[in-house]
Amino acid sequence: MKIVVKIGSAVLVDQKDSRINKEILIDIVSQIKKLKRRGHSVVIVTSGAVASCGNKKYSRALKAIVGQPRLMSLYIDFFESYKIEVGQLLFTHEDLEGERCGYTKELLNEVMESGVIPIVNANDAVSGEELDALKQYADNDILAERVASMIGADIVFILTNENGLMDFKNRKVVRVVEDQEGFYKARFLVENRKSSVGRGGMMSKVKVAENLCMVHGIEVRLLPGSQEDAILDSLSGKKIGTIFKAKKRP
């Protein structure tokens, strides 16, 4: 399978001291190693670069400049311990929507076919018109959606700091969402709150899941990213998080 794993800032970054939680990242890397050894191709869409720089005086672009190499160095070190090579791709608006879109798709597929794991983020360290055009991709849920649709992914895992899509009235996790009516109900369940480090919020995730499932035929699973082996447990059939079922592809 082609798998996209989107890792949110709220999963990776400790909100108290703006440091990457290495234990959580190590667990995620270990799971991706196991996925790769099972024959799956994996793309990582990662947040955390901006949030990991705690200097409040810095602009968002400067935080990205400082935080991105810190984040990548951890990915490199942890994957290197399994003898797995990774590569960094920082995309701009034109890479995803403009004339270079075709090249971006070819590049992603080339990286995956080579056995290298692509680690994707939006290029926040840009300015002017490009920054304005890129704003929607600063929400990495949308970036993950674009990447998944470009490569024809089979499944997208969105790792969040929630246990899944919550039905707060009944105090339970919604385990399955399917068909248009299911997504209609899901949007009404969402408490439109955001974490202090994330940008997208739960409404963004539901909208992205709906587009991937209903338009592109790509299944989405919303999982608690800090829970050990969440991805592997979900694939093995354990009840964890929320599964957004995809419409059958033509």
Structure, explained:
Strand 8 (165-167) and strand 9 form a beta hairpin. Strands 5-6-4-1-7-11-12-10 form an 8-stranded mixed sheet, sandwiched between helices. A two-stranded antiparallel ribbon has the order 2-3. The chain has helices spanning 9-12, 22-37, 60-80, 93-97, 101-114, 128-138, 140-151, 179-189, 201-214, 230-235; strands at residues 2-7, 13-14, 19-20, 41-46, 86-91, 117-122, 155-160, 165-167, 172-174, 176-177, 219-224, 242-244. The longest helix is centred in the N-terminal third of the chain and has 21 residues, at 60-80. Helix 2 (22-37) crosses helix 3 and helix 8 (179-189) packs antiparallel against helix 9. By secondary structure, the protein is an alpha/beta fold. It contains 10 helices and 12 strands.
What attributes characterize this protein structure?
single chain, 250 residues, alpha/beta, 8-stranded mixed β-sheet, two-stranded antiparallel sheet, 10 helices, globular
Structural class by helix and strand composition: alpha/beta
* Rg, alpha carbons: 17 Å
Strand proportion, as a percent range, falls in: 15-25%
Question: SSE order, as H and E?
Answer: EHEEHEHEHHEHHEEEEHHEHE
Largest sheet: 8 strands, mixed
Low-confidence stretches: 127-131, 194-199
Order of adjacent strands in the largest pleated sheet:
5-6-4-1-7-11-12-10
The shape is globular
Question: Could you give the count of β-strands?
Answer: 12
What's the multimeric state? single chain
Task: State the distance separating the first and last CA atoms.
Answer: 18 Å
What is the helical fraction, as a range of percent?
Answer: 40-55%
Overall mean confidence score, pLDDT = 87
The number of helical segments is 10
